[in-house]
């Protein structure tokens, strides 16, 4: 079984959306940071948030 790297909540709380500079919501189940303002979800891979718009998933 593969271990999931620990995600530092304090670090996540300090991040903002790179597009709107609005706060992000952490989705633990999907391992994403969600920007409701930009309608984007940024992935967290190996415990590292990928804050690139090109890597983000568009929300409907």
TrEMBL record:
A Pfam cross-reference name: Trm112p
InterPro entries from the UniProt entry: Trm112-like (IPR005651)
Taxonomic superkingdom: Bacteria
Gene Ontology cellular-component terms listed: cytosol
Family per similarity comment: Belongs to the UPF0434 family.
Protein name (database record): UPF0434 protein EV663_10453
